[in-house]
Amino acid sequence: MIGGLLCAVAACGTETSGSPEAQSAPGRHRGSWQEPASYTYTLRSSEGERSLLGTFRISVRDGTVVKAVGLDDTGRRTVESTPEAVPTLGGLLAEVEQARRDEAHTAEATYAADGHPVRIVLDWEENAVDDEARYAITAYDPADDRRARDRTDPRPGT
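Request: output the structure for the sequence above.
Response:
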């Protein structure tokens, strides 16, 4: 009885948590989402022994990370020591695709209703220790084209 209850609770997972991203997550299909040129998002990177660990607020402009702020001690250390390790969402999705090509034990992504990733889980070897990567993507905010242009184009009204 208790074992069955634990299995039922475990099956619920975190996809039904109170976050808007999880509530809108339809599943594991990317759909037609195209990475915008400019956006911000929060990344929580955990698991494994890698250079990219911690929580970050990331700003992307023209497809490149232009600002990364560590939101916890680990994130701040990562930004100070290896700022180039902080990825765009496209970079994270490329990591998933590479793991699939390499036939990793686990290469899963969960997507929001608009198609952007909200959760990525990677595990290259089933029985290896510390080769996992887990990413949670929240507070995704795509910049509309007009706002992005207004910040970068000195000509008024363009």
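The longest strand covers residues 132-142.
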